[in-house]
């Protein structure tokens, strides 16, 4: 479709999408940093991971979550490994969440990917057996993504005033 015929705000780099990216990144980073005692380490429940359901509705949530996680991990104290691989894990989980066919599957990629990747990163950093860390991180992700995130997904779907904003595949 020619650019001059597109609905305002549908361009990937529109002010609306850039604002969404920035807002999601800021909320993710702020929640993670504000709740630092439970957001970092071998036992973690990142409340901000509830936001990982947003890619189901908004494509702009994928880069927003990545940037927010990158910023949060800069403050986490687990070093370059966590900054790089933790942020890439969030990016890949958000990308996969975007492609889930049913709402109750949307939180699954962040749970599985973070359990595996963050478990491995923390294993290298802390020297604790990987399987223990994967189980602990996975349990925290279940809380964040399913107990907090899934109700958020259903609330957005029910109460969002502009359903035409939803960009499903």
Could you provide a short overview of the structure?
With 169 residues, this protein is mainly alpha-helical.
Please provide a written account of the structure:
The chain is 63% helix and 0% strand. It has one domain (3-165): Arp2/3 complex 21 kDa subunit ARPC3, CATH 1.10.1760. The protein has helices spanning 15-34, 36-39, 61-74, 79-98, 108-126, 130-159. The relative contact order is 0.14. Helix 1 (15-34) packs parallel to helix 3 (61-74), helix 3 runs antiparallel to helix 4 (79-98) and helix 4 packs antiparallel against helix 5. It is globular and about 50 Å long.
Task: Report the β-strand fraction as a percent range.
Answer: under 5%
Query: What is the annotated CATH architecture?
Result: Orthogonal Bundle
The end-to-end distance, rounded to whole angstroms, is 17 Å
CATH topology: Arp2/3 complex 21 kDa subunit ARPC3
Helical stretch count?
6
Estimated structural class: mainly alpha
Radius of gyration: 16 Å
Percentage of residues assigned to helices: 55-70%
SSE ordering = HHHHHH
Describe the global form: globular
List the domain count as a whole number: 1
What is the number of beta strands? 0
Q: Main β-sheet, in a few words?
A: none
Low-confidence stretches: none
Query: Briefly, what CATH class?
Result: Mainly Alpha
The averaged pLDDT comes out at 92
Keywords:
single chain, 169 residues, mainly alpha, Arp2/3 complex 21 kDa subunit ARPC3, 0% strand
Give the helix/strand layout.
Layout: H1 15-34, H2 36-39, H3 61-74, H4 79-98, H5 108-126, H6 130-159
């Amino acid at each position: 479709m020619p650019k001059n015929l597109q609905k305002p705000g549908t361009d990937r780099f529109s002010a609306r999408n850039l604002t969404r990216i920035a807002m999601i990144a800021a909320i993710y980073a702020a929640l993670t940093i504000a709740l630092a005692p439970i957001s970092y380490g071998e036992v973690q429940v990142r409340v901000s991971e509830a936001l990982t359901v947003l890619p189901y509705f908004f494509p702009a949530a994928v880069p927003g979550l990545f940037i927010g996680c990158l910023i949060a991990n800069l403050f986490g104290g687990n070093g370059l490994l966590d900054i790089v691989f933790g942020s890439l894990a969030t990016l890949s989980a958000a990308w996969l969440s975007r492609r889930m066919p049913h709402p109750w599957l949307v939180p699954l990629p962040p749970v599985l990917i973070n359990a595996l990747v963050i478990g491995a990163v923390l294993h290298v950093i802390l020297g604790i057996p990987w399987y223990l860390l994967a189980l602990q991180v996975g349990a925290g992700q279940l809380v964040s993504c399913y107990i907090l995130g899934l109700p958020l997904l259903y609330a957005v779907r029910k109460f969002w005033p502009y359903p035409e904003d939803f960009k499903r595949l």
